[in-house]
Structures are given as structure tokens and as C-alpha cells.
Amino acid sequence: MKFYRVKTAEETWSYISEQIKPISRTTNLPIDEALHRTLSNDIVAKEAVPSFSRSTVDGYAVRAKDTYGASEMMPGFLSVTGEVKMGEEATISLSAGEAIYVPTGAMIPEGSDAVVMIEYCEQTGDMLQVMRSAAPRENIIFRGEDVEDGEVLLQKGHKLRTQELGALASLGVREVPVYETPKIGYLSSGDEIVPYDQVTLNAGEIRDVNGLTIPQLAKQAGFDCIYGGVAPDDFSHYYEKAKQLLDHVDILLLSGGSSVGEKDFTTRVIESLGDGEASIDIHGISVKPGKPTIFGRADEKTIVGLPGHPASAMVIYQMFVQPLLRRLSGQRVEPIRPSKVAKVSENIPSTPGRTDYIRVQLVEDEGELFAKPILGKSGLMKTLVKSDGLLEIDSKKEGVLKGDQVQVTLF
Ligand SMILES: Nc1nc2c(c(=O)[nH]1)N[C@H]1C(S)=C(S)[C@@H](COP(=O)(O)OP(=O)(O)OC[C@H]3O[C@@H](n4cnc5c(N)ncnc54)[C@H](O)[C@@H]3O)O[C@H]1N2
Ligand code: MOO
């Protein structure tokens, strides 16, 4: 038995962005409940923001050209004809040679195209001395300068952060159409795996580490994840557990049994799931760690077979499952991952043709940041405990050299 349909890391990302479609269910949510959700439609502004031109300073609204040449030595003289009150309409308009007092945020009167700050003015009775010239548009936010009426403010697929919610609030949008969050199911497999809260172990048993780490990573990214327990290395029991879970979720994550051993049933389980078509699209990614990873589909739902080794499962989750979940939740663009630039502390060889994810610790030395490889087998959790992030060595390289500058993707 061999791996088949092995893909490179790049081919796997293309598969995710091209073959995986966002889940179709959408809902409308009040904006104060829509943080981190993804828009399922464009948001078109139905009004301009701001709806009136307003001053950004406390000062005098003027016609810019009336102030040209004004300086402390040669002030310009204007006559003050009134003031605009906060939150009220500017009822008077401004003519040549006139100035009207405006506080910060107040409406700019008709006829004015600039505001001179009070620091550069001196008012005596109705007479204003202006000691600095103002350029047209200076100190004014114009009507529609933030958002124009009819403008597409946000596009379908945009993930809503606090600043987007603020922009929606300014527009008076109270509800937004968003994709439903994909429901995730997670199931561990292996005769040796016991629940992680089991106090004593019998010979040969190990605790379900992935059953804790993977649902926690999903939770940290804002997804709900149903934990399905542990399936034994027995096709029909494994199949039954997976089938039950699949009925309630949009995506199923299976851990273990993804390799090519006699008891590695994950491929067969995926192929048998679903009432209609089921397929294995990827079996093996040319990466280290985590080569025995599976991407398949059954009943138009995505199923991922994660490698059993805990460090491999976490790396594959970070590099491939997380983008897959974002894609399923309708996100259009890949967000920028938090990363740090560091120098490699020692030569790290790698095999061309395979993308390596090296677990690294970031160490500061005399003001410089170094990426120190934490080498070790992918069954060892402590390699991840000691690490701050992953250094990717792409498949064309034979490694990185001591002193090379690299980007470390942080956990
Ligand atoms: N003949 C080959 N054998 C293996 C290959 C290969 O290419 N040819 N690949 C190796 C690599 S690399 C990995 S990674 C593993 C992945 O195998 P599986 O996905 O089939 O995982 P298992 O065999 O079920 O488990 C591997 C290892 O991890 C432990 N494990 C499994 N599940 C959990 C869990 N939920 N929590 C903690 N630990 C878990 C399991 O006990 C095994 O020790 O295959 C290699 N073999
Ligand atoms: O691909 Mo495995 O995860 O290296 O141990």
C-alpha cells in the first residue's frame, strides 16, 4: 500500500482556495454580535458619512483666499458674523471678508472652504485678526469624505473587525448579512488512545492529546467544535462514529490512522461516508512534519485526516486546516499571520521537493532576535512547548544557513 494523490504545500493551498466553497447558510446579525464574522453580501452605503462638512478644529470658518498672505507681521482682517453651535445646522452663510466661529465637529457654513485655528486668530469685538493663511479644504472633513452615498463600503467575504463595525455604526447599518460559522466535528482514532482525563494508563495506552489540542485551536479561532471521542482501529466502529458526527457538522477532522499501515482506516472511512459521492482528493502532502494528511469529501462536506503524531497534527492544523476553515466561513482573503523576522541561529538542512516546517524558539541576544531550531520527533509535544513558531523552508531549498534572515510564523 502506498500514498497516492500526494500534493505539494502550494497545490494543497490552491485546492483549498479553488475547490472548497463557503458554506451556503447565511444569517442576519445585529452589528454588536457580528465581530469576526464574514459578510455574505456587499455593504452599500445608503447615506454619506459624514452627512455634513465639519470642522476638525476649534477655529473660524473662512474663505481660504481671504487669508492669503496673512502672517503675524501682516495679519489679515475679517469680520466675525456669528458662530455655529455643536449639533445644530449652520443657518448663516459666509460671504467674502467674513469669518464664522466653529467648534471642533461643528457644521461648516455655506460659502466657507477652510478653518483657521483659534491659536492663529485674535478677535476684538466683531473684528478678527488672522495671523496665518489657510489652504482650501484645510481643517475640514467634507460631506462624504469618509464614505460616499452609494459606495461599496465592504465586500462580500470581508471578515468584520472592530473598525468595520465602527464604520457600519457610523452609516446607521444595524444588521449585516453573514455566513453561518461552519460546524466542526473532531474524532480521534486508535486502539491505544484513551480520554485525556483518564488518570492511570494501562500498558500501551496513551492519552488523547489531539482531542484536546485540535478542538482548542479551533475554539481559539472562533469556531465551535464537537468532540466525538475516540474511535477504535476497527473499520465498522470507526465508520459509525464518523458517520454520526458527520450528520451534525460541516467539516469533520479525523486524527490518526491516516498513514498506510494495516490498521490505518481513515481513507476507507472517508470513502465510505456519505450517501452520495465520496472522494479522496489528497492523500499525502510533501511536507515535514505531517506528510500522511488526507483531504476528502463526502456528501459535499470536507473531511480531513490529520496525522496522529501530536506535533504533526498541530502543524497541519495551523498551516492547512485553519485556511480551510476560513475558506468555509466565506473569507475572501488570507489574513496576515502574526510573524517575526529573525536570524537563523545555525544551519538547518532540508530536503528539496518537500516543504519543511521547523519548530523554532525565538531568542534575543544583544538586541537581535534569533530563530533556534527545536529539533525532535513529531510525536514529542515538548518540541512545541519549547517553540514560539514555525519557520517554513520551501520545497526548492536545501536548507537555511546560520545568519539567514527568516520570517517566523508565530503560534
Ligand atoms: N510505513 C510508514 N509508516 C509511517 C509513515 C510512512 O510514511 N510510512 N509516516 C509516519 C508519519 S510521518 C506519521 S506523522 C505517522 C502518522 O500516522 P497516522 O496518521 O496513521 O497516525 P497513527 O499511526 O494513528 O499514530 C501515530 C502516532 O501518534 C499517536 N497518536 C495518534 N493519535 C493520537 C492522539 N489523539 N493523541 C496523542 N497521540 C496520538 C499514536 O499513538 C502513534 O504513536 O505515521 C508514520 N508512520
Ligand atoms: O509526517 Mo510525520 O508527522 O513527520 O511524524
TrEMBL record:
It comes from Texcoconibacillus texcoconensis. Catalyzes the insertion of molybdate into adenylated molybdopterin with the concomitant release of AMP. GO terms for biological process: Mo-molybdopterin cofactor biosynthetic process. Its cofactor is Mg(2+). Its EC number is 2.10.1.1. GO terms for molecular function: metal ion binding; molybdopterin molybdotransferase activity. Belongs to the MoeA family. This is Molybdopterin molybdenumtransferase. Gene3D superfamilies: MoaB/Mog-like domain (3.40.980.10), MoeA, C-terminal, domain IV (2.40.340.10), Molybdopterin biosynthesis moea protein, domain 2 (3.90.105.10), Molybdopterin biosynthesis moea protein, domain 3 (2.170.190.11). It comes from the Bacteria. Residues 185-327 form the MoaB/Mog domain. One of its GO terms (cellular component) is cytosol. Keywords: Magnesium, Metal-binding, Molybdenum, Molybdenum cofactor biosynthesis, Transferase. It catalyses: adenylyl-molybdopterin + molybdate = Mo-molybdopterin + AMP + H(+). Pathway: Cofactor biosynthesis; molybdopterin biosynthesis. It holds the Pfam family MoCF_biosynth. SMART domains: MoCF_biosynth.
